[in-house]
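name: query_chain
kind: protein
chains: 1
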Amino acid sequence: MQQRALYHEPARPPYGVEDVHIITLGQADGRILGYVGLSGSYDQVPLALDAPDRPRLTTETAHQVDLLRRYAGPGLDTHRVFEVKRFLRNLDMERGTQASLVPWHIVLGFGRSLLALGGPQRRVLAVGDAKEQVAIRHLLLMGLDLEVVGAPRPACPGPS
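structure:
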């Protein structure tokens, strides 16, 4: 599997916070044109962001960095953290209006989802790794206050 670069997320347990999938579909044929996922916590109960036994997010494991400890405090726990996954657009689309609008439709769904997930306090933390000239650019254009953390390049797990 490692030699062919086929990786997958762990199967979700039947508890924790549900994932959110934001999808833009083609009106004519139903093809997936854009996608972003927000992966919720696997914790049965909310944990403090600096809890020593807190399971690490896949981004934290891959980059060998603790992304959440700095945000530990009242009102923010692991059930209010979502890991951003696969912010992408169908690259086979012809250039044009639709192709240029797809990222903005995904960004709109992303923003609305974060507002809803934040609850009445509008408090939610989205983390993940992203390419500087792609997803990060879109998020900055959205007006989000990003904190970019330098980390080692992702390391793929060795054969088991």
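note: The helical segments are 58-63, 97-117, 135-141.
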